[in-house]
Amino acid sequence: MSKKTKRSISTFAILLAVMLLVSIATWLAAGKTYTGENGEMAEVVGASASDIFMGPVNGFADASDVITFVFCLGAFLAIVNATGALETGIHTLVRKLHGKELVLIWILMFLFSVGGTTYGMGEETVGFYILLAATMMAAGFDPIVGAATVLLGAGTGVLGSTINPFATGAAVAAATSVGVEVNMGTTYVIGIILWLSAYLLSVLFVTAYAKKVRANKGSILTAAQLDECQKAYGGKDVTTAKLTGRQKAVLWLFALSFVVMILGFIPWGSLSETMYNAFSSSTTWLTGACLGDWWFYDAATWFLLMGIIIGIVGLEDKGQLMKLIANGFSDMVSVNLVIAMARATSVIMAATGLGTWLVEASVTALSQSGVSAGVFALLDYILHVGLSFLVPSSSGLAGLSAPIVSPIVAGMGWSVETSIMINVAANGFVNLFTPTCGFIMGGLALARVPYESWLKWAWKLLLTLFVVVGVVLTIAMAVLS
């Protein structure tokens, strides 16, 4: 029996509501004092009408690097899709993996999680949502399985960040900048425990749901949503089409594009000087930045170039290349509007000082309450989960929180390393579902998974992860302090 069609809450309405709630919070906290970056006393400032009206525009400007990347990625995908190589390749893969599709989920989620724990793979995953949604639809699952493979795979890695310079690295740097010593070996051990625990829980949850969908026991998506997805991606694999030589070349170039992007974002300089020197001049001719020093403008340039090359190789009619680029850009307009709206909240938080005051006031109160190290860890974890809704950026939260929390924890004689991983894990957990995270909302939009459907499907897993992560961090603080 098919599910009834129901109206979905607009993503823009959700993000607008969050921005307005944060603005109201700044009015309530206006006048509260906190210690500024240079040690001076500062006050929380209530968001002005112009801050609110300009919020989406300022969010667009603040996220311009990610937005540019997504536009160029859209052009790249439009060209690849026009060659027919991706669709035929997906069906070929599904045929070859017939009966072993669940193994693919385990492997892909693990690979994404490695990217998450090593270099904070997040925005870089946006291009994979549409690819994995199509692949999982062809395998007899639904787009949620594809979206979950990407989001939970990379997200659990970020939650248990080990050498991620944008999470663990940023928090350690912020702590040492105020004179607090950190044992990196301890942070690695805690990170690995968190990473593997979260990965195993998530992959078991995803595969259990995938089995249910494949057995026709019900998708979380409505009938109308599934029909829309089938029109976009197709249903189960029914084609017997074979890849042409030209399409095989396109797929090799497609894979190369993502491999180079990943290599570009991995911070080789902080991992291996030898590797960094080996890569140092490999891409400076293209973007001006060494492989390993890339950011989103560099990746955008790379994808635009590779899209043109793929078009030359794979398109029979080369004259449609520029039209495909324009169409690819237009396909990403709604996704980029979501990213801009999500960033607006963070811009208002930074402009008003609300985030810094919240951290300082809350952690100071906790440290003076007389609770044990383990209880402090649990309460600090809950605090940072709340803060991460307002500051979804891992490096942003680290820079905001670690310089305040680390000296307090060190002064109490407790484990600074655990406090750093509390910061990292709380932010990683929230970035599995927060609407203020642009790549989540953008990725789900590309996979055609409504945000409320994601929450309805994932809430049991999220609750389990929240508890498990809290227990691990509480035990770590109690044992190491």
Features:
single chain, 481 residues, mainly alpha, 2 strands
Structural commentary:
It is built from 24 helices and two strands. It is mainly alpha-helical and 481 residues long. It has a domain of 315 residues. A hairpin with a 5-residue loop joins strand 1 and strand 2. The longest helix is centred in the middle third of the chain and has 31 residues. The chain is globular, with a radius of gyration of 23 Å. 51% of the residues are buried. The N terminus is likely disordered.
- Distance from N terminus to C terminus (CA atoms, Å) equals 57 Å
Q: Briefly note the structural class of the backbone.
A: mainly alpha
Quaternary state, please?
Answer: single chain
Strand order in space, largest sheet: 1-2
Quick one: biggest sheet? 2 strands, antiparallel
Radius of gyration: 23 Å
| Tally of individual helices | 24
Question: What is the count of β-strands?
Answer: 2
Written as H for each helix and E for each strand, in order along the chain, the element string is HEEHHHHHHHHHHHHHHHHHHHHHHH
The coarse silhouette is globular
In what range is the share of β-strand residues? under 5%
Helix content: over 70%
Uncertain runs are 1-6
On the 0 to 100 scale, the average pLDDT is: 86
